[in-house]
Amino acid sequence: MAKLVIVRHGQSQANRDNIFTGWTDVPLTEKGIEQGQMVGDELARMGIQFDDAHTSYMSRAIKTMNIILERIDQLYIPVYKTWRLNERHYGALSGLNKAKVKEEVGAEQLHRWRRGYSEVPPKLKHRQHERRYDRLGVKMPYSESLAMTQKRLLPYWEDQIAPRLMDGKNQLIVAHGSSLRALIKYLDQIPDDQIDQVEVPNGKPILYEFDPALNITKKTFITMDGEENGNS
């Protein structure tokens, strides 16, 4: 019985300031660091031994991953970084305050951009470039819907994570709100018109348990007080 724990990174400065971030690097806040420590302490209490860990190319996720692994005394396990686990690219919304965007376009449009499945936020006029992606030959998006995020995420799931779970190896993923929503949609088979109801809070782990055929046998929302609220 293999276990998968997915965690959204701790609070970032952009989360605190209500800013669209996407592929922009922003640091964790003190609260974000504490959230990572709390996740690590709870996973240590649960005694889960991970075989591999996976995270994005974004520093807020990488640092949260390092904090968790240090707290569970498993810094020695392999950590795989991939752009495919990055947050969705919010295009021209990146760097803008969400409240101000809401004033300009209305709550309904903002909700579709943030929580819808196929809605693409306003695109950038020019493609951005960063060495971290150029060196891989990866073209940074002009903007991404959740559907587009899921499309670039699933090959990594199918090639790197799913086979390990089928071999009975426990996996840890530390990523982002949108990339994890895309994964949850796939795992839980959530219809397109219902994914807007799914929220992944910062520093709130979710535990999936799988049989050898990769069928989900249990899903648990892990709380930080030692209690677990789950459903089979």
Descriptive notes:
It is a single chain. The chain has 232 residues and is of the alpha/beta class. It has helices at 13-17, 30-46, 59-71, 98-105, 107-115, 131-134, 146-166, 177-188, and strands at residues 2-8, 52-55, 79-81, 171-175, 206-210, 216-222, 228-231. Strands 3-2-4-1-5-6-7 form a seven-stranded mixed beta sheet. The protein starts with a strand and ends with a strand. Residues 226-232 have low confidence and may be disordered.
Features:
single chain; alpha/beta; isomerase; 2,3-bisphosphoglycerate-dependent phosphoglycerate mutase; 15% strand; seven-stranded mixed β-sheet; 232 residues; 38% helix
Which helices and strands occur, and which strands form pairs?
Elements lengths: L1 E7 L4 H5 L12 H17 L5 E4 L3 H13 L7 E3 L16 H8 L1 H9 L15 H4 L11 H21 L4 E5 L1 H12 L17 E5 L5 E7 L5 E4 L1
Parallel strand pairs: 1-4, 2-3, 2-4
Antiparallel strand pairs: 1-5, 5-6, 6-7
